[in-house]
Automatic annotation (TrEMBL):
Belongs to the OPA3 family. The keyword Coiled coil applies. It comes from Callaeas wilsoni. May play some role in mitochondrial processes. The lineage of its organism: Eukaryota, Metazoa, Chordata, Craniata, Vertebrata. GO terms for biological process: regulation of lipid metabolic process. This is OPA3 protein. Keywords: Coiled coil.
Amino acid sequence: MVAGAFPLAKLLTLGARQLSRPLAARIKAGARASPFFRTYICLPPAQLYHWVEMRTKMRLLGFRGAAVKPLNEEAAAELGAELLGEALVFGVGGLCLYLEYLRQAGQSRRREEHLEQTLSDLQQGLERLQKDLDELRAQ
């Protein structure tokens, strides 16, 4: 088995995604426990999400201009912590995809450079052979 054939980057990506889930759960627990985190980090996105969701549902059902009541603090904190955890997992997944893209682009670029170098070497060899042939014909 060739050592270079092992997809180490994919294994590291999977590990990062698996580690992000417990970290997200820890953030959720911290959001429930910390009043500052709850008030300033979790509640605003949760209330915004709730408002957008309810407005969309009302418009789909044909209601126009109906006011949306905000969520209570406990439900908003829970929703905000859930949104934050999901955003973290999604962000880590997106980062892994971006890093994999960069890795693949680098491999492709190196492969192209290698092919261009090989082509250049072949052209130089052909020119040398052509020159040698011309010299032999001249003799």
